[in-house]
Amino acid sequence: MAPGFSMHPFIRHQDIITVSPVPENGLNTGDVVAFSRPDVGNLTVHRVVEKTDHGYLIRGDNTEKPDGIIPLSSIIGVVVRVEHNGKDKILTGIGCGRRPIAMLSRSGNLRKITVNISRFKGLCGAGLKKPQGLTVYRRLAGKLRPDISIIEADEQEINDFHAGWNYLPAQAQYHPDPVVTNFVAKSGKEKIGFVQLLRRPETHYPYTGYWLFGPMVRFPYRGMGIGRELSLRVIGMAEQEGAPELSLLVNEKNKPAIALYRQLEFEPVTVPGLTKKLEKEYELTGRRRIPMRRELKSKNDPS
């Protein structure tokens, strides 16, 4: 099972990889290989970008630097099959296109192309932002949207969602946390939205209590009311657990999100101990977040 994003987009996080022994005639430029890194001993799956007299120059398709010259003795085998969600992937970079991919990777241009594609997708999504904020769009999209289910996500679904959302290998994979409940919105098998309910003890001051955290909806599905439904699931679970209040942080420039949270009865608040942290964050990033809070009524409260 592939861990991480270093071979994105040809091999994604948690794709299933089949490795065969190194052929008798050796390796070719463009082959994707499994090898033991001499510096740390970790099993790694990256691409051969150049053959040398001392071994093979190997590099991940989505990494900033190569792994270095790897001797044949450290190479375990060649990737011959990649599966995603139980199906063979067509776009794997291990077929006839592997040589040009290796050439682009060796020059450093492959990662630039990948990042630019990611940015282009972001710009396309940003182009939808204005119409998605219009009342007429939201009403129409809400009626025409596909069937969407919101469920408590398991580890596999969380990793699948983040693997499709993140493009940089530096993005850490998800690790289970008993004080966090994750919800995912799905249209069929496609993961289109995500949110978390965090329960923070006093040791996490000033981020104590119950928090609605990390809401995300993919651009094509924004304006359909999915963010609202995800938020309501978090609110409902917090109320079931008897939480007196639910807090969140939102970018002050994200007017649609603020409007949504106000509709859901969240109000801006001052959180003792948090103001200075948020001001420092603003100085470092230029992004100002504001805390909002909603008072909750326990499901067991007859009033």
What keyword list fits this structure?
303 residues, alpha+beta, Umud Fragment, subunit A, Aminopeptidase, 2 domains, 7-stranded antiparallel beta sheet, 7-stranded mixed beta sheet, elongated
Describe the structure.
With 303 residues, this protein is of the alpha+beta class. The chain has two domains: 16-111, Umud Fragment, subunit A (Ribbon), CATH 2.10.109.10; 133-295, Aminopeptidase, CATH 3.40.630. Helix content is 30%, strand content 29%. The protein has seven helices and 14 strands. The strands form two sheets. Strands 1, 2, 3, 4, 5, 6 and 7 form a seven-stranded antiparallel β-sheet that branches. β6 (75-84) and β7 (87-88) form a beta hairpin. The longest helix has 24 residues, at 109-132. The radius of gyration is 23 Å and the shape is elongated. It starts with 15 loop residues before the first strand and ends in an 8-residue tail after the last strand. The model is unreliable at 166-172 (pLDDT under 50).
Draw up the topology in text.
Elements: E1 16-21, E2 32-36, E3 43-52, E4 55-59, E5 68-70, E6 75-84, E7 87-88, H1 98-107, H2 109-132, H3 135-144, E8 149-152, H4 155-165, E9 180-187, E10 190-200, E11 209-217, H5 226-240, E12 245-251, H6 255-263, E13 267-268, H7 275-285, E14 289-295
Q: Can you give the mean pLDDT?
A: 82
Q: How many strand segments?
A: 14
Low-confidence stretches: 166-172
- In this structure, how is the largest beta sheet organized? 7 strands, antiparallel
Structural class: alpha+beta
Q: Any idea what the CATH architecture of the largest domain is?
A: 3-Layer(aba) Sandwich
SSE topology string: EEEEEEEHHHEHEEEHEHEHE
* Envelope shape: elongated
As a whole number of angstroms, the C-alpha radius of gyration is 23 Å
Give the CATH superfamily of the largest domain.
Gcn5-related N-acetyltransferase (GNAT)
Helix content: 25-40%
The CATH C-level class name of the largest domain: Alpha Beta
Strand content: 25-35%
Q: Given the structure, what is the number of helices? A: 7
Number of domains: 2
Separation of the first and last Cα atoms: 51 Å
Briefly note the CATH topology name of the largest domain.
Answer: Aminopeptidase
